[in-house]
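Morning!

This is the sequence you dropped in the shared folder:
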Amino acid sequence: MNPDERRIMTYIAMAHGLTHILELTYAAMLTRIAAEFGLRAVVTGGIASMFGWAFGSSAIPAGFLADRLGSRRVLVYAFGGSAVMAVLVGLSPNAWWLAAALLGLGLTAGLYHPAGISLVAQGVRQRGLGLGLHGVAGNVGQAMAPAIAIGLALLVDWRLAFFFVGSLSALLALVLAMTRLDVRPGSETVAVDAAEEAGDRSTKEGNRFFIPLLLVYAAFIVSGMVYRGAITYLPKHLEDFVNADFGGAFVTVALLTGAVGQLIGGSLSQRYRLEPLAPIICLLTVPPLVLTGLVSGWALVVIASVFVFFYFAAQPLWTGLIADYSPPGAVGRSYGFSFFAGFGLGGTGGIIAGVFVDIWDTQAAFLGLSAIMSVSFFIALVLWLLAERRRRTAPTHSS
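The structure's back. Tokens below.
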């Protein structure tokens, strides 16, 4: 990477990591918050889903703003707002205040993804590697969140964790406000294969990718449901079936394997076509997710890590396909729709998992999430078949 690309990746890595620290702090503190306010699992899951809906809903305006104002300015707004909202979460006197403050935190933190990812897609020549490194940073942030939050909660209480991440958000907003980040001219248009590289993407060609783009959005919804349910209840699951006192901290181990998965997924997406890779990785994700709902003890930490590895290995593929199928000049808003699908509509996974936990336990919740995850394999398979049909019917361009 050249100096401009390294600068982009450095700041985006910090921003993505902090975004997921903000996101996962509530899940890491779930047991303590529920105990203080006397909340049932369906309520804590509902609050998590509400956060997810807000997190995803603001992705749509963030995508349009990124295309219009530039990614850097949107990132400043995201972390400045998150700083205020995280402090308000920490000041919560009751469950209603907590829910409202987390709703606000979701709206502000949700501005990040369309702006951050479009900046990587447009500013880094090795897009697959850039998206993989971007994902690694997010997983490192997710992995740090339980350790930071639980450590601060043990020292003082859960509120200190939100004050701390709020301070980090304010600092990053200030740094980004004084930083210049450039993208390459004309980098929004990413060709899908050699046939498209040879000519302009006409309206007719753009329509060819309408159905595949909708399928990728559908995959984001399914994947987002699994993500929201798993990320909300994995700390509690590990506390219930590994160690009651600090089992939740082992989420850090699992999420660090997700960082490796992001890097490998990004590397594979640089070397191979994305459509054939997607169903393979989706299929490999289902068995360890099933086993996460069946095993207990230290084996659970291992198998949960395997699930997280494959789940996040697929993320650079899906985000890369969004860039491939997006119309020219609409990369940011396409990512906005995709993250609305994943974090917003997919946020219902928190409620679904919470209902399973209330009726049965966290093991039942992960078995239910396994059934949802299997749908992504069939979506990826259809996407691959459509890509093969396009390749067979694509006109041959002579030199």
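Headline: The chain is about 80% helix and 0% strand.

More detail when I'm at my desk.
O.
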